[in-house]
Design goal:
With about 475 residues, the protein is mostly helical. Among the domains are: about 140 residues, no CATH class; about 160 residues, no CATH class. It has 25 helices and two strands. A two-stranded antiparallel ribbon has the order 1-2. Helix 11 runs antiparallel to helix 13, helix 13 crosses helix 22 and helix 18 packs across helix 19. The longest helix has about 35 residues. The chain is globular, with a radius of gyration of 24 Å. This is Lysophospholipid acyltransferase 7.
Length: about 475
């Protein structure tokens, strides 16, 4: 028992801090004075950083303060660029601290630093994006055009230095996320939704699965430990056993992530943070996507009778992670808040269109860390998706009945196996450790990917050539329609 506690001391402290953050939520929610509420939230956040990091707390504190000062010192046209490069440069320095004679921060401090990077860079892009959008709207004179869906920015975002400080350090979401926009943070203090949402019911509903996730993680990690995969005993097992061992590793990793993300969501729900009326068609990370300005004008009486959701702060679709058929869909339901940040900050804003996906993947890799395992895991996804898309269109998309059920299982199995194979690299981290395991299975899955892709391309070409060509009259008719 004591050996277990000593071995997992940091994780236990982290878990207790998350549970404490959930517990204090109802009290924090009742604070009425906005400025006092912001300061209390920031002080709790700073206290959490110090408890988790000790002397290494200087890194998240210093980088966030310098980042928000940089935002205010630079022009709105370029603040996002300067902030992005500064925060990621500091992230590299932070992770290479031992090379500069400083103690290397713990994994828990690393998680906090990662969230700080998302917040500071994200708000810089919000400020710049809102400035660009408002300038375009003014130039085009289209403010009054009715749209089914809101633009990414529907009003100018220009927080003060003090508000940037509070956004960076507020304890809500600081430990494990989720990432949320500055707009969501500001709405929490100025809109009435948190007063009327059933925060207790949502929190209980969110927390109820956590004991199961924790129990499964402890059981799986005890039965199939990570280090065993590097032993000679493992290498002497059958090829099938070695091939399937990453399924156990990825299963325990998922339970760990589910536990942390679910508790992090509960921190938000316990204070009513991220609650919006369902009519806003709320999306993870973003918030309302329809009628946002109308929601801001909602009276207290209307807010009291509204129906709410917490989609804005939902990070993990657990059921989706376990059941979706394709890797493409799996990536959409895994850590959705960070996926949103990468899409908004990198993918949509990167200026060279053919390189957008590569830029997004590269930033995702370096945000996770500097180890080879992150590259092997994240950067190889598109190569599997290329093959997957071909088979999806050829055999799954229009399938029905028993054929669709069989294809669903086959594609789910292949997707799950691919994720498990990549997750082994993510967990082993360093190139030498990854090479030991991949060599033990002869690097087979990369060969399978290549064969899948080549065969898929051939089948796709044969399918195209076997289609009857449409007549001129049919093509003309389609164009008219």
């Amino acid at each position: 028992m004591w050996l277990f506690l000593a071995k997992n001391k940091n994780d236990i402290i982290y878990l207790l801090l998350l549970l404490t953050s959930v517990a204090i939520g109802p009290f924090y929610r009742t604070i009425n004075k906005i400025r006092a509420k912001k300061w209390i939230g920031s002080l709790i956040g700073i206290l959490i950083i110090v408890i988790v990091s000790g002397y290494n707390a200087i890194h998240p504190l210093l980088s966030a303060c310098l980042g928000v000062i940089l935002i205010k010192l630079t022009t709105v046209r370029y603040c996002h660029v300067f902030t992005f490069f500064f925060m990621f440069a500091y992230l590299f320095f932070f992770r290479l601290a031992d090379k500069f004679g400083l103690p290397l921060p713990s994994g828990q401090t690393n998680l906090i630093q990662m969230i700080i990077v998302l917040r500071v860079v994200g708000v810089a892009f919000e400020i710049n994006g809102s400035w660009l959008m408002m300038g375009k709207a003014k130039k085009d004179n289209n403010d009054d055009i009715k749209k089914e869906k809101d633009d990414d920015f529907v009003e100018v975002i220009n927080p003060s230095l003090e508000d940037l400080f509070h956004y960076s350090f507020n304890y809500i979401g600081l430990l494990t996320g989720p990432y949320y926009r500055y707009r969501t943070f500001d709405d929490y203090f100025h809109l009435p939704f948190s007063k009327y949402v059933d925060y207790t019911g949502f929190t209980i509903n969110t927390l109820k699965m956590v004991p199961l996730y924790v129990s499964l993680y402890l059981a799986l990690s005890n039965l199939w430990p990570l280090e065993y995969i590097l032993t000679e005993d493992h290498n002497n097992r059958s090829f099938l056993y070695r091939m399937m061992y990453p399924w156990a590793l990825f299963a325990q990793f998922r339970q760990r992530i589910y536990s942390g993300m679910t508790l992090a969501e509960s921190v938000c729900t316990s204070v009513g943070f991220g609650a919006y009326p369902v009519e806003g068609r709320n999306r993870t990370g973003h918030g309302p996507t329809v009628g946002y300005l109308k929601l801001k004008k909602m009276s207290n009486e209307e807010a009291k009778n509204a129906q709410y959701d917490f989609n804005t702060i939902e990070s993990m679709d657990v059921w989706g992670c376990e059941t979706v058929v394709t890797l493409r869909d799996s990536m959409k339901v895994w850590n959705k808040a960070v996926q949103y940040w990468v899409a908004m900050v990198v993918y949509k804003r990167f200026p060279i269109k053919p390189l957008k996906i590569h830029a997004a993947l590269f930033v995702s890799v370096i945000w996770h860390g500097i180890h080879a395992g992150y590259f092997f895991c994240i950067y190889f996804c598109p190569f599997y998706v290329m093959a997957e898309d071909i088979y999806y269109k050829l055999y799954y998309k229009n399938a029905t009945g028993m054929k669709k059920k069989i294809m669903s299982f086959v594609m789910w199995f292949l997707r799950s196996h691919s994720e498990s194979y990549q997750a082994a690299a993510f967990l082993l981290l360093t190139f030498d450790r990854i090479w030991i395991y991949y060599s033990s299975v002869y690097h087979y899955w990369y060969g399978v990917w290549l064969v899948f892709l080549i065969v898929g391309l051939v089948l796709n070409q044969l399918n195209k050539s076997s289609r009857p060509r449409k007549s001129v009259d049919e093509l003309t008719s389609e164009k008219v329609k």
